[in-house]
Amino acid sequence: xxxxxxxxxxxxxxxxxxxxxxxxxxxxxxxxxxxxxxxxxxxxxxxxxxxxxxxxxxxxxxxxxxxxxxxxxxxxxxxxxxxxxxxxxxxxxxxxxxxxxxxxxxxxxxxxxxxxxxxxxxxxxxxxxxxxxxxxxxxxxxxxxxxxxxxxxxxxxxxxxxxxxxxxxxxxxxxxxxxxxxxxxxxx
Length: 188
Description:
The chain is an alpha+beta fold. 32% of the residues lie in helices and 24% in strands. A hairpin with an 8-residue loop joins β3 (84-88) and β4. The longest helix has 14 residues, at 27-40. The protein is globular and about 45 Å long. The protein starts with a strand and ends with a strand.
């Protein structure tokens, strides 16, 4: 995946070196890998890119990257397909969130998930980033649709999903929290 740019954001592809640093809880290694990816894409900041102090935590890593590090190392192109860190285009270079696809889908239906740090919420940044990644995914060979799931009570997530243009397409049960709503955007 190339780096995507929106009006306010840079979506930097997550690579194996970044994931290894994050999963080892080695902030310096993850940030060095991010800086290298930015330089390789022709983006130069006056300062080094930083992860927020509270991000990524263990829960977020487990949800965003359901594969073991060994599985990711075996096939990073499939396991990290479309995954991006969200950075603002203006101001100091810092990670404010991520958009992930849970691996390249074999069935042509990609599943997207997204999140932004607390300080960056309620500004439309999750919508802007997710929209760009969904649009990118729908241009990829073999991809016919992108889906997202959320709980009926998660109003912020429902807002992102609807603003991205996804339509309801079903439900499924979550082991702990009950019903999950499934939304989908199909290739036009």
